[in-house]
Amino acid sequence: MVSRRKVIIDLDAGTDDAWALLMLLRGEQRYGYEVIAITCVHGNTNVDDVSINVLRVLTAVGRTDIPVFKGAREPFITSPVPRTSYFHGVNGFGDIVFEKQVDARLVKPGHAAPELYRLLAANEGRVALIFVGPLTNLALCIKLHPEVLDLLGAEGLYVMGGNRHGVGNTTRSAEFNFYADPEAAHIVFQRVPPTCPITVLPWETCLTQAVSLPMSWRLDELGGAPDVNEAVRMLNAIERKLYGDRPNWMPCDAFLVAVFVDPSIVERSERFHVEIELHGAITRGQMVLDHLKARSTAKPAEGGEPKENVRIIDGINHDAFRQLCLMAAK
User: Fold this and answer.
1) What's the rounded Cα separation, in Å, for the pair 113 and 263?
2) Which domains are assigned to the chain?
3) Catalytic residue among 12, 16, 17, 262
4) Is 195 helix (H, G, I), strand (E, B) or coil?
5) Buried b / exposed e across 296-328, counting CB within 10 Å, b at 16+?
6) 203-236, pLDDT tens digit by residue?
7) 48 is catalytic
8) DSSP string computed for 173-191
9) What's the pLDDT at 300?
10) How far apart are alpha carbons 170 and 175 in whole angstroms?
11) pLDDT digits (tens, 9 = 90+) for 52-97
């Protein structure tokens, strides 16, 4: 019997994280993988609320069997995102008042960073990693346990973040997840070995994908079906409050998870050498791509490994993504 692929998802639990998690959970049986842990990080809200939001989703769909670990509360150097700047509300879920409380004791003891190492070691590195928030937990894991780099293998690392053409959403030149902890992003892209393929879905791809997702489809068709699960009913109230007057729906993190769940969904991608800007007065946190691929920085390194260290996802199939969303909603 062939064992299923294993995957860990690290998130900062706003609403798009919730959709990403639902899609990942609902695809387990159909697409042949197993979610073995969920790790939480600062970002869309504080890490305590992140863990509660994750538990709300898991409780709603009866999956509290999956271990949840809290991780980094703050970035490496800079200050945490101010509460007044949280895009999804102070609690990450639109500040909706929930009638039912979840059991916070379901969060497992232990910090996410060493737990990542433990889980990778226990599975001999045969674990895919999906990161849809700031990369602090993975960078901490690398700093605490450098030997983890030997465990990162062909299952790959999937990241939602950064920008393809310098279009920002937090500053004029930086995307939120990377800007929230530029040093963490720098550590990850500098240290993860070529044996572990990195897939990045950047901000600009989210912008182009959202054009085909009217908010009316999200709320009335996807969320309005009579047989949607309890988590989607919860998200209906949150997203109607937060984004109901917007023309399009932009579930950034779910776009990335769709690429993991069904790789055939990718229509356009390209490989680049990627670095993170740390010092620019107006470009800190920007993901910089080496478009001049003939330069020495992009030529094969010693040992013959290519310097193009990242696959950038530029487009996914619109209809196939909708089908994955419908799967997640059941």
Assistant:
1) 27
2) 5-329 (3.90.245.10)
3) 12
4) coil
5) eebeeeeeeeebbbbbbbbebbeeebbebbebb
6) 999 999 999 999 999 999 999 999 999 999 999 9
7) no
8) S--HHHHH-HHHHHHHHHH
9) 54
10) 6
11) 999 999 999 999 999 999 999 999 997 766 655 566 677 889 888 8
